[in-house]
Design a protein that fits this description.
By secondary structure, this protein is an alpha/beta fold. The protein is built from 17 helices and 16 strands.
Length: 469
């Protein structure tokens, strides 16, 4: 056990997030998930399982007596924060929360129930991996779980994982890391390798919830007291689809349209100009953020998540957002935005993107991290999205690094913004012009908001939310 980190039983973990829980009956036989094929015959083994592992039946009996559970997972339904959901909770005290065939049967049945009743799935994970006493028959349960997760994703139902101590092995690599949103309890041991199978010189700090958050594999580390509220918020946000695009936010600064291209650049680069956080605060309430690209990185300059529209006829609707915060966007930021857009698309939630970047990060490390592929990933996610996208250009629109997040045919601009194929300074340098011609080059590029409207690049220029007093 990780020192100082509580290990909740399956029922205690359930009690952390809901006061009402109805257990699903255990499946009488394996759930059949391939309708086009004949049903497989029920499995029959001796008392010590598929490997005839001596003493396995006795170990199961002791685990049942100790925990009061029949298997390593408890499945049922509950209302969390006002949203009905299917709850899956692991009992680590039952053979280390390991996955065996009967575990797979229960998980499969729970996912099938969720799809039949159109319910989201929340997994409270605490597992050491696959059950050795069942050998490969246990390991292939990961394929069953992965298929159930995929079928549920294709059905447009959200999946949320809460990582308890410990979450390792195949449970982390399927139910945990494969969820749409991944939350973790502080200090929980999280990693593919369990504590007894790591290299002897491995840094234990790398196998924690906090380390996984820093590496972009976890969305938030949540204290137990805050878990019910945040989990309930996530379930509400992800369970309200909408087919209509959201309107662009109003401008937050009362700025006149620029007379010149260079004035447009100055307005967009001003330290006084409202940034993405100000727009999100003004436009959305009850936000919840996702974090990380699931590939080992995160970018604090890309803000992604879901929130509720505040006012007007659209007030109360859920919207997904991907917002650049004015910095050069890193590859991890683009991958996180692509992840956000694809999740919103599956759940049929409209997307708002806020464009504000001098451009994509172009240092050597960004190239090593796959900048080109990451930008391409966002272009692809935007192009493939069936859910409506709305974009507001709120500051700098630096080349393809900004355009990647822009919604085709539904991009708007604030008066204090500009969009350019290249920064005026760089354009002048490429054309071998002296520095004093940068301003004239900015005019030639036609980068002012009103120029963008004339060119058909943006639909219009948004006005301030209210006139100055």
């Amino acid at each position: 056990m990780t020192e100082g980190v509580p290990r909740y039983t399956a029922r205690e973990a359930i009690d952390l997030v809901t006061s009402g829980f109805t257990e699903l009956p255990g499946p009488a036989s394996p759930v059949h998930v391939y309708p086009a094929e004949p049903a497989a015959p029920a499995r029959e083994y001796g008392p010590d399982g598929p490997l005839s592992w001596q003493g396995y039946a006795a170990s199961r009996a002791r685990a049942a007596a100790r925990t009061g559970e029949e298997e390593s997972v408890v499945c049922g339904t509950a209302t969390v924060g006002g949203t009905a959901t299917v709850l899956i909770s692991f009992e680590f005290g039952f053979l280390g929360g390991s996955l065996g065939e009967r575990t797979g049967d229960r998980l499969e049945a729970a996912y099938a129930y969720a799809r039949e009743h159109r319910l989201p799935v929340v997994s409270l994970v605490a597992t050491g991996g696959s059950r050795m006493q069942e050998g490969m028959r246990a390991l292939v349960q990961l394929q069953r779980v992965a298929r159930q997760s995929t079928l549920t994703r294709e059905a447009g139902l959200p999946q949320i994982a809460v990582l308890r101590d410990p979450t390792t092995g195949g449970g982390w690599a399927t139910l945990g890391a494969g969820a749409d949103v991944v939350l973790a309890l502080p200090g929980a041991q999280v990693g593919f390798a369990g504590s007894r199978v790591r290299p002897p010189d491995a840094d234990p700090a790398a196998y924690t919830a906090e380390a996984q958050l820093a590496a972009g594999a976890v969305d938030a580390v949540v204290p137990p007291a805050e878990l019910p509220g945040l989990l309930g918020l996530w379930l509400q946000l992800l369970s309200h689809p909408s087919a209509e695009p959201v309107p662009p936010p109003p401008a937050l600064a009362d700025t006149d349209l620029p007379a010149t291209g260079w004035e447009a650049v100055g307005n967009a680069r001003s330290s006084e100009r409202p940034r993405a956080t100000a727009y999100l605060d003004a436009y959305l309430t009850r936000r919840a953020a996702i974090s990380g690209d699931r590939c080992g990185g995160k970018d604090d300059g890309m803000l992604c998540g879901f929130g509720v529209l505040k006012d007007g006829k659209d007030g109360g609707r859920t919207v997904a957002y991907a917002a650049q915060a004015g910095t050069a966007t890193r590859p991890a930021g683009y991958r996180t935005a692509a992840r956000l857009i694809r999740l919103a698309d599956r759940l049929r939630i409209p997307v708002l993107t806020l464009v504000d970047t001098p451009g994509a990060a172009n240092d050597a490390e960004a190239e090593r991290q796959g900048a080109g592929a990451a930008i391409a990933d966002v272009f692809g996610a935007v192009a493939a999205a069936r859910t409506p996208l709305t974009t507001l250009l709120i500051g700098e629109g630096g080349s393809g690094g900004a355009l990647a997040l822009a919604a085709p045919d539904n991009t708007w601009a604030t008066p204090d913004s500009y969009f350019s194929v290249i920064a005026p300074e760089l354009a002048a340098a490429i054309l071998k012009r002296p520095p004093q011609e940068v301003r004239a080059t900015a005019d030639q590029l036609r980068i002012r908001p009103q120029d963008l409207v004339d060119l058909g690049v943006v639909r219009g220029i948004v006005e301030p939310s209210k006139s100055p007093s």
